[in-house]
Design brief:
Shape: rod-shaped
Number of helices: 3
Distance between the termini: 50 Å
Largest sheet: none
Helix content: over 70%
Radius of gyration: 28 Å
Strand content: under 5%
Length: 105
């Protein structure tokens, strides 16, 4: 009788365990369709933005424009714009990762 009681108690614990695990697990967030498409294209967008940043750095470092203040200022504005674009893309990538990008792997 004690064995039957122990088996019944163990069986009850096994039935309750999956339910308690399900409650403890955080809800899996998913990206929306558009966010998923954005996530999928993000690596290419970042690579293009970084290439544009590198080109802007080289243009700003060109010694041929060092004596022309207006041209040099324009190139440094373009450099700052390119850096801002890269920073925005990385920030958005982090947002998508936090929202559910990790869940899609």
């Amino acid at each position: 009788a004690a064995e039957d009681e122990a088996r019944a108690q163990a069986s009850d614990e096994r039935r309750e365990a999956p339910a308690s695990r399900a409650k403890a697990a955080p809800a899996v967030k998913r990206l929306s369709y558009n966010e998923q498409r954005e996530w999928d294209a993000m690596e290419d967008r970042i690579l293009h933005a970084e290439a544009a940043l590198e080109a802007a750095q080289q243009a700003a470092a060109d010694p041929a424009v060092a004596s022309r203040a207006d041209e040099l200022a324009a190139r440094y504005r373009a450099l700052q714009d390119a850096q801002d674009a890269v920073d925005r893309l990385y920030a958005r990538w982090a947002e998508l990762e936090a929202k559910g990008g990790a869940a899609r792997r």
